[in-house]
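Marked as duplicate of an earlier ticket. Keeping the data here for the record.
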Amino acid sequence: MLAASRDHRVVLLTREGCHLCDEAEQVVRQVVTDLGVGHARVTIDDDRETRDRFTTEVPVVIVDGRIIARWRLTPGDLTSALVHRAEEEQQ
């Protein structure tokens, strides 16, 4: 599951039929497009271990390997997380 995170700064964990996941995906797409950041959408239904761990928490947004949001996401939250993590890496 998290193999996608090695290639993308933002990983969105979702489930089929999840309206909150669709909303989070719109936010993720907007922010990563604006910032030029790689992202991936991972459907947890495809992996039993991941599904068991996150089944009631989706959508889950992961930035650079850290969970930054569950259920709801704003553009400001994601932008802040991306900028903050980038600043940490520069230090």
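See parent ticket for discussion. The chain has a mean pLDDT of 87.
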